[in-house]
Amino acid sequence: MTTNVKLGNQHPTQSVIIPFTKSLYKPAIKNYERSGRTAQEWQVDLAKDLFAVNDDGLWVHTKFGYSIPRRNGKTELIVIREIQGLLDGEQILHTAHRTTTSHSSWERVLKILDKAGIKYKSLKAVGRERIDIPETGGRVEFRTRTSTGGLGEGFDLLVIDEAQEYTTDQESALKYVVTDSDNPQTIFCGTPPTPLSSGTVFVSYRNGVLEGKLENAGWAEWSVEEQSNIRDRDLWYKTNPSLGTIFTERSIQDEVGQDEVDFNIQRLGLWIKYNQKSVISENEWDELKVHSLPILQGPLYVGIKYGNDGANVAMSIAVHTLSGKVFVESIDCQSVRNGNQWILKFLRTADIQQVVIDGQSGQSILAADMKDFRLKTPILPTVKEVINANSLWEQGIYQQSICHSDQPSLKVVATNSEKRNIGSSGGFGYKSQFDDTDISLMDSALLAHWACSIDKPKKKQQVRY
Fold it and tell me: Which InterPro entries did the record assign (predicted)?
């Protein structure tokens, strides 16, 4: 008696494949299956794309990337490609983010070569493993990625395993290693980056292919388009091609937990549209938080920022602490349609040393209102002073001279920001990475921080007799 086993979706949910008429995949699948293993349908289909050649016998896809949720056997396709490359006499560089990953890839290729009865020579050196087939001259080197690895060496195939951690520095060192090859190919394989992933190249590559900006490039992924119900079993099958063969529904059921975003990324293949290359990481921001309000010294410094689009205005405060740091906190961010009364009410009742207002859409009006209420004349910063404020903010974060109470709204803005150019002398400001968060909230905090930083608390004069 046989039972029908439900299998995961064998076809990518999104892909860009250059049309081709010929592929050299059949020998690769045959040599792989000599080991007793059977390639899954999705692996065979992607192998067709990887081994596609044009009329000149050159790879159709000189670059190919694919993303699959964890534990689906994504590196097995790399093994198929590398074994055939060895038999064809190719020079191959396999790189990974972790030493343990590159080592386990070396072990996996050796195991399949053994079972397939293919003779080889190997070198075991942790972080620099190697496999050679003397008969063909084929070679695979397994390396842990660094910012200098690969310089001065030439290969035909470059494999970027754990591509979600592939950084621009590493790319600068590695992308030229296949330049001298007569028929080069680069393969990126990985999972969607998490908010803590260090790499940015994988994201840029995916975006470039999907937007049609890259030539000779292919892409395939299994994913959901937006954050989805983690208990929807249909989505489990839609995004995991090896569900039913490598693992089961019960295995995924054990993974379901409180972190829905992480499950969406790791198991449903979600590509988050934020926290990619934020110039302020979540870890850096969390290191600045205090668990109880520090002892504050002196009056408040207020930063007010009118958004560049003129829609919102944000206000934050900064104040010196007894430990010598600057404590920052956001007061509010409201629509400019609400007027300035909420700002003026705060300025009239708090003990304030200085107010800084930036944003041409509203700074002159607020300054006039402050004059009418006989409040202290505010600072309307110049471009040079705004650049200085942004630089001091960056320094304060790196030097941990800033502290905060972990306000969720300010954290979201700070940890999803990137730099933008200001002026013509290399100055920078910040901008948000997604549309529904206003960078003006952080801008107001950094203006308050700037005012507080440049106005050092006066030391009490000591008189000795």
Answer: P-loop_NTPase (IPR027417)
